[in-house]
Amino acid sequence: SPPQSNPPTAMGNGGTFLRLAFYTATARQPVPRSFARRMSSIEQFEVAQVPCLSDNYGYLIHCPTTGETAAVDTPCAKSYESELAKRGWTLTHILNTHHHWDHTGGNAELKSDGVKVYGPAKDGGEIPRLDVPLKHEDKVSFGGDEADVIDVGGHTVGHIAFHFPNQKKAFVGDSLFALGCGRMFEGTPEQFWESLQRLRALPDDTEIFCAHEYTASNAKYAMSVEPNNPKLAARVKEITDKRSRGEPTVPSLLAEEKETNPFLRGDISEEIQKNVGASTGEDGASIFFKVRKGKDNFRC
Fold first, then answer.
1. Which of 9, 188, 254, 292 has CA atoms 20 to 30 A from the CA of 40?
2. pTM over 0.70
């Protein structure tokens, strides 16, 4: 069984599975807890991508040193239970990004003794079995490391992302997709644009783990508003090839999102501005809203 760890804390102000990071050789061996803490900045967590429902991705993050395992959102409890059993992992954390049912539907079934549920404070009343409400710039301790909580409201008012700087990974839910972003169900253009700017400011080599396989559809819209972007054209070909083989297009690198995702480029691409009807000198939030409205009405 995995070694016991200190209780997690938050500090204020069946399908195809993909291995995305690997144990370090040292981390496979039992190590003293003090040494494990010293290793935390260099060892890599293992991330299992769990396809759920029709197009959702859930994620299991595992620390081989402490034995802790976190579920990022819970679209389907049974899919998680199968993957946990296959890998011999024990769930310790549930990290919810927002309140929508396809991100919290498995909370009640997966929560047992020793499992803590973390989620956005602003969505708190709608997060099943929430233990630890979180706000922007809080930190969540996990596996000898910390996740920074980022306010990415817009899709929902309280939406948050979990960024592990030492792991170069950000789990962003429905705030940012590969070549897209979530629909603006509850927030405002100003709020959503500020959220996307926070994500855009992360290091270029950050892996972006979003929650849906929407990339092929997003690619068609991206090409309609920035058809002369050669990096976008090359990426669309790569996406088409991957989907033809049944492979996931997620995660992606933030660097390629900054080069190709129209929702991160509206304020810097004159071609996008022209194609969504933005005026010269229009502010970023207003341009974002026009890009978002264009996607909402897009029919390929």
1. 254
2. yes
